[in-house]
Amino acid sequence: MSTQTNNIRIEKQPRVIVFLLLISAVGLLVNGYRYGFNDHAFYIPMIDRLVNPDLFPRDYLFDEPSGEYNFWILAMATLARFFPLEWIFFLGYILTRFALFWAIYHLSLNLFNSRGAAALAVLFLVIPKPVGGTATATQDIFLTLRSTAMPLAVAFLIPYFRGRSILAAIICGVVFLIHPITAVPLISLLGFRLLIETFCQSWRLPAKALGVFTVCILPLVIRVFLIDRASHSDLSPFSRSNPQWLEIIKERDSYIFISVWNREAFLSLVAYTVILLAILFFRHRRPSDTHTNTNSTIFPQTNFWAFGVVVICVGLFFIGSAFVEWYPLPLIVQLQILRGLHLIVNLSMIYAAWLLWEGFQHYQKSRSPISTLASQPTNQPIKFYFAFRVACPFVGSLAGALIIALVASLFTSGSHHQLILGSVTLVCWCICFHFARLSPAPKRRTLFTWISLIIGSVIWLSVIWAFRRFFAEALSWNIFWLVLAGLIFVKLVGFLAKCRNLRKVENFAAGGIILTTVLALLMLNSSKLDQVLIRGQLIHHVNLPGKLPPSSWADVGQWCKTNTPVESTFFVPPKTTGFRIHSRRSSVGDWKDGAPCVFSERYAKIWWSRMEELDGYQSFNEARFQQLREKYGVSLAVVGKEHQLNFPILYQNHEFVVYALGE
Predict the structure, then answer these.
(1) Contacts of 660 (CB under 8 A, 6+ apart)
(2) 45 near 61, Cβ under 8 Å?
(3) Residue (of 352, 93, 68) closest to 222 by Cα position
(4) C-alpha radius of gyration, the chain, whole number
(5) Is 405 within 8 Å of 516 (Cβ atoms)?
(6) Is 373 exposed, middle or buried (CB count within 10 Å of its CB: 0-12, 13-18, 19+)?
(7) What is 619-639 written as a DSSP string?
(8) pLDDT along the chain (663 residues), means of 10
(9) Is 480 exposed, middle or buried (0-12, 13-18, 19+ CB in 10 A)?
(10) CB-based contacts of 139: which residues, under 8 Å, 6+ apart?
(11) E strands along 463-595, which residues?
């Protein structure tokens, strides 16, 4: 085997940058952007407290250590001293989305050396793809640690595949500093690469890369060690977990346990894995795909390293299952290893895009030249059989291209049903092509091709028929007619370009699958685009800085911020989230506060006891509030407007009321 030491290819053409900017804009309009959403409920207060240490003086949320396990919060707090946090998050989100699509494009480009396949891969990953039942996706609609680290995690695969171990170690180290959980699969892949290179080549370069990685992560490792030592961490990484702590986590963060995943979550992961394995097998059997590097003597091609990604991800799945479900270890629970499966999701879509692009180009090139019509003498009519010979390849290529474009459209949404249908189709297609190459003689190639097509079609139709109810949502006639119209348009453009010898226009026709995929993407998300572009609901879908949508809950927070002392603490409905964001005041607790329970057993028990005491909050009477006031020393409560209490009203709007509970 020979190691890949080729230089990394970076695209510098302006049209590529423009394409990625346009895709980023489309992704923003389709997916939206949120501020003060989800995990912001505890990250933004952590940032606010670093900027102003007087905030949240008695808030139990800051007793849990997760905010100290990264440098992202510290970096955001540093920027927040000079710029508004809303603008930091918004611009940061825009930059990370562009960086993510840039990384996807260049990963595909360095794997396959095809701009078309790279563009198609970006289109496939514009819509977030769920990562099993982990409650995460390939991208978020808000800025957080994971969304900041994800572009670097994808970019890590470029030097990983190209044999640039030191660069891979640096990127892996930076991801670890931002979000250690995202770095878990990267560390495994880096170790896999360095181990293979040590045994097959020399230990010097792997040792240097390992040293660089160690230097990168050392600041955070030292920080975590000192924090755990100072706070007397209540979790021993390799001792069996406390059953009570696990029950709390299973109630609050159930995604860590595969036993609670639904069927679609498992099937989607299987689909991604099968897609990648099938295409790797298909590439392995193609002699034209064998690349030999004469500059070194270790590894043959990227297929080996891609298979390594599959092995690592499958290994993480079983480790994350075994040491959470059957023999739970605190360290494995905290690392949330199953969330590292985002690598196989991204990589399978990139490989699927390449396969479909190659197939589309095959059908484009296999048609008979239409320009041969012009070679007929003008004084002789075109014979029927000649027109038939020209029309058949044209119709055949159109049908083949239509099938490929329809399969591509299945990957432009986040639907589990469409993903699984697409994976079944790709696997059947790989079976067809592989069987067609088994012909012992060139003369029988046509026979074997037809047999392979029949076998693949029978398998595909059998699967569709057996699971017809499951796939009913994935099949859309609207998409079929839209893609067909797009392809006919592309074919006509290609025909005119060929007749007039317009090379650039003909190249457009060759990339017709890009156009049809864009059409499918817009069609599948037309309702969202209609709300944003036509019905004027942009601020509801995209939270622009300074123009957040009206919210009664945010109004309550703003009133509390301007009319109560900094040290005030509130009772709030436990099912609401984000009170601290708008009010900058402490609360007794809400359901979202339980997300960091995986990082501290002590904190998990405190949070759970508070949730038990706040159970039935919407029906609390005056006596119950007085009882809790004496326990927590809290004299302010926010309740729903329909929740009438005999306490002085300090503020109210059409949804919420703020009561003073008295002395």
Answers:
(1) 635, 636, 647, 648, 650
(2) yes
(3) 68
(4) 29
(5) yes
(6) middle
(7) G--HHHHHHHHHHHT--EEEE
(8) 62 89 90 89 93 90 84 94 94 96 95 90 90 89 93 95 92 94 93 90 88 93 75 59 86 88 87 88 60 39 87 90 87 87 92 84 54 44 39 50 68 75 74 57 57 66 64 57 61 57 51 72 70 68 82 91 91 91 92 87 91 91 89 90 89 91 72
(9) middle
(10) 27, 31, 97, 100, 125, 128, 147, 150
(11) 569-571, 586-587
Of 10, 306, 341, nearest in space to 153 by CA: 341
Residue pair 305/160 in contact by the 8 Å Cβ criterion:
yes
As given in the structure block, the two tokens for residue 589 are: 């607790």
Q: Please count the other Cβ atoms lying within 10 Å of the Cβ belonging to residue 155.
A: 23
pTM: 0.85
Here the tokens at position 221 are 């490792």
Q: Would you mind telling me the total number of residues written for the chain in this entry? A: 663
On whether the CB atoms of residues 658 and 637 are closer than 8 A, the answer is: yes
**CB–CB of 312/337 below 8 Å?**
no
Going by C-alpha positions, the residue among 421, 424, 426, 455 that lies closest to residue 438 is: 455
The neighbouring-strand residues paired with 639 are 657
Q: Distance (Å, rounded) from C-alpha 402 to C-alpha 359?
A: 11
Query: How large is the angle between the packed helices 40-51 and 85-112, nearest 10 degrees?
Result: 120
Alpha-carbon distance of 398 to 90, in angstroms, equals 44
